[in-house]
Amino acid sequence: MIRKYMWMLILIAVLALSGCGKSGSKNDTVHLALSADIVTMDSHKTTNDYIVPMNVFDTLFSLKKNDDGSTRIDNSLVEKYELSDDALTYHFTLRDGVVFSDGTPLTAQDVKFTFERILKLPDSAQTDCVIIIDGAQDMLDGKADSLRGITVEDDKNFSITLTAPFSGFTSLLATPAMVIYSEKNVTEAGDDFGMVPGKTIGSGPYIIKEWTRGSGLVFEYNPRYWGPEPSVKKVDMKVMEPQAMDLAFQKGDLDILDCLFLDSAIVNSTYKTDTYKDRIVSVDRLGQNFILMNENIEPLGNVQVRKAIQQAINRESILNSIFAGDGKLEDGIFPTGCVGYSKNNQGWLKYDPDNAKKLLADAGYADGFDLEICLDSTANDSIKNAVQVISENLKAVGINASIRSIDHASYLDLRNSGEMPCFWAFWLLDYNDPDNIIYTFFGSKDNVKLRSLNYSDDSVIQRVAAAKTIGKEADRLAEYEALEKKILQDDAACVPMFSTKHLFVISDRVETFIPHWAGWSDIYFDQITLK
Amino acid sequence: MKELPKRLLGIIIVMILVIALIFVMLRIIPGDPASVLLNEHVSQANIDRLTKSMGLDKSLPEQFFGYLGGVLRGDLGQSYYMQQPVSSLILQAFPYTIRLTLLSIVFAWTMGIVSGIFSAMYNDHFPDYLFRGTALLGISVPVFMVALFLQYLFYYRLSLLPLVYDGSIVSMILPAIALGWNSAGSVARLMRSSLMDELDANYMDTARAKGLIYKKAVIFHAFKNAILPVITMMALQLAEMLSGAVITESVFSIPGLGKLALTALQTRDMPLLQGTVLFTAFLIAVGGILADFINTLLNPRLRLG
Prior knowledge:
Radius of gyration of chain A: 25 Å
Distance between the termini of chain A: 52 Å
Number of helices of chain B: 13
Oligomer: heterodimer
Strand order of the largest sheet of chain A: 16-15-17-13-18
Largest interface: A-B, 51 and 61 residues
Strand content of chain B: under 5%
Number of strands of chain B: 0
Strand content of chain A: 15-25%
CATH class of one domain in chain A: Alpha Beta
């Protein structure tokens, strides 16, 4: 008899057990999802995984978004600062009473230690962030043991000297790459720092409690945090495939859904509906999409051909049909909201396939040519679809475009070798300064090769590098405006596309949610308030 | 098991070949670990520095013999991307995979054998159609489809089981079914055809003539003979399951070996990928010996040959 009903017993047991998992307290816990696990919690060893640095550590400054879309820089660990008349030396005073989550007080020496560590680590990924500090190059070259550009006066006061003026410096100090570590904790943790939760100790609003590789992260509120107490006390982040996120959100097991991971058709059909439309939170992504063209690949070396491609792509239709209109056409390098954005450089690029054909004929390519557009196989569906439309657009003016899909690592390899003919590129700002975007693509001979642009005008490349250090802000912005016009309108080095919005859907438990100012997928947990 | 020393030597040779093969293949495919680590934030100076710190500026023979020497000393090297010793990463991941594989084996073999027997006994009747249809679905639907369907049904529709792995054994049930589904299908089909052959055999007529009940005859006589080819296949399925685990572990976020290997491939983390492939190859080789051993135990004829 017992045997006969064994299966029922088992079923009941399974049901009971599956119920258990959900009975935990849910009131001040937020459930979030990650599309891929992080690799390290140490911001010096990654340029991607900022979720721990952003929430467990603090930066000297923080960047916030104003209502009009512009950004402002607030003090964070810094109480006040002064800039010398030659715009080279910053004198900082640290906030009183800041301690790390284990009780160790924050000192000026910690700041110096952190920035020196970026230069000392053999596998540091962030040296570009501090290279502007005086003496950084010597440390990288192994000529110096300490960073002479940073002087520690006492526990609270220190100064940083730059090699050249750079008005974006405080903005740079607000990026998650520049979080401040405790010298004592990092030294004690050794190789475990950034790897073991209990040994990765910061001064931020949260403590990292658990990290199960490939599975998820658990954060808890740091009771020693110096700032206001956040509404969310515990964060449970799970690694999930996009379709699992979609299911979990609809089921009510996820509090914030990042629509970037979903096909915009699903977002439209499921979330832009009466049930969810009031719960959509959107932010402009402070970044620009481009179609890059390699001047070393014939016939893209011909400026007429590049201009023809600029006019052959129907950007408006791609934005409206594939990105559901969630964005804005941008004719410049600097997107709306970016410092350096100029109205004068907008409105010049029109979709004109007939003129594109004419330009091609003038250039001697009346019969068209073969062009390979490369596509990263990890790109999201919207970009894949957009590239499809672009290849059709190009075929319409006689260019025989084909698409080649390549896996991520091979794609980066091909692009960095300077041999990728044509591809979709996207840059999201790390800090709000024009240098962050223009230098990446046009700032050095190495960079134009690494982006497979092979832009040929050396004098422009030198001007881009020099623009960073122009002392007077108005002059600096005027120079960026001139460079933007020269590169895009005169030289047609690439096709500016559009900036997009980043949509999130919040569950009915969330009262407010403010996404990252630049529209990153990584979020600050203290920007969520629960009902 | 006189063969054992010979088989062990075979394993060692296979392992060395695997190392050489994976080493060469990883260097042929394009992609550079330093670039992946830096991703969009590349600069030439950083690429050069990281390449040097990863030891990738050395010549290929130097890298190969350096690695081989390390393996012989039991040192699988350091992961580029995760910055931890490869052996400790593998040992962390392995328990998850073994749990998943064992669970799905239990599922696949029970389901497969039981439904195979029913199919054979009720040949061309309703239970047979049902099980045959299911088995056909089992072998023809890819693992990730099964996984998505299970998630939709048991998590979203019925709220019975967790969506992804959360540390509990309950959350392992769906992954185990998804991973075992395919094998269950093939086990069932083989079990059915193998048993049907035996049911037609003369000794079955003898058994029934002796007055044995049909069910008992099937279980005590036919089944014993019919299971042998099935066991051979089940051992081979172990290897299949380890490769299926790559997909299952990704869909259900299980931090096992498959997921580790996939991340290593995507990031061109050569030491880690070499380590996981080597380890998996070792498991499969040992599994093969074990299967042969069980077969010899069950089938005395093999012992004589």
